[in-house]
Queue: 2 jobs
Job 1
Amino acid sequence: MRASFERGTKSGSQTSMHSGQRHGLDYTPLFRFLLSRVGQDWDPVFSEAVSRLDRPEPIFWLVAEQDNDRRDVVRLGESSYYSGLYVDAGGILNIVDPTITSERIQPQCPCCTHSFNGKVVPRKFIEHGLPLVVSPADKPLG
């Protein structure tokens, strides 16, 4: 028996072919919130963040849970990059490598507008195979 549903709506009893997958959730406000709380005590930051979410996992896309999980830069989506975060031994939220800025990010493809921590990356795509993060001494390319 076919499930009834209205075309173009999510009403009705039909289940998705990909049930359990989450699509269309924008966690950009969460990432901005976490970045704005760098230098603050982790416990209240975590409590506030998790109270506004449907699940806690997206917090740990940026915030490393273990030392070996730390990443300088985290890519989320096609072309959005963010500073990796961690909590130090004193319980303070920190950036893994605070020297990385949008000016140091090298776009990895010519078709996307790349961003770092919500700011447009000013460099232009040059060629495939270049490192994602360039040396601070390198002059802007493109």
Note: Residues 34 and 54 are 16 Å apart (CA to CA).
Job 2
Amino acid sequence: MRQFFSRTTGLRITICSLFLLTSQLSNAQAENTANPNTGSEPQTIKGISALNHWANMVERLRNPQLDPIEQLSALNQYFNRFSWRSDRQQWQSDDHWSSSFDTIRTQRGDCEDLSIAKFSTLLALGYREDQLRLHYVFSRHIKSSHMVVSVRFDNGQEVLLDSLSDDLKPIAQRNDLQAIYRFNRDGLWIPKLGQGKRSLSLIPSWERLLQNDPILRNPELLSQQFSSL
């Protein structure tokens, strides 16, 4: 019990330290937009509480007895409960991709923000890079651009995590989505230009997150922390 408490406490310290560092570097405009008459301290406390809640969720989902589909379904539902906010509402911008920490600490965002947070959490849970893709698509259902996350198992099965639905469906059954491009931390794939991997420099918003988001930069660190619990 003492060893478990020590490891859990160490994990909390690691996460909270990363969160506080990220909070200091976050765009101050978002804080002012949310509540221009409120100091940063109450928002920071709220953010730490939200991050601890996320850490508890990740610890629970690392249970090796949990069915993989149940694990992914729980993760998808967790983020789908966040409040939807457009980039214009949250960032005063037409297009802004939030870091995983910003999305988790504020518990709000749009489809891109939620998908990126899901992707980061999957990495922290120990999923391999080659199993994961972020898909930028056109949704015929909402008649707009959209983003989802795919997870491919070793048996070849591939399912989508979608902020528009709690249900997990095989990617082959999502005829409502028209592919535009897909990517992860290793590269970019554009179906209309062939199967070759292309440079991530074509997605500057993603390159910025790879430099500034602690989970995306070093998910293995958090994954090792979780796996030692």
Note: Confidence is low (pLDDT under 50) at residues 1-6, 24-42.
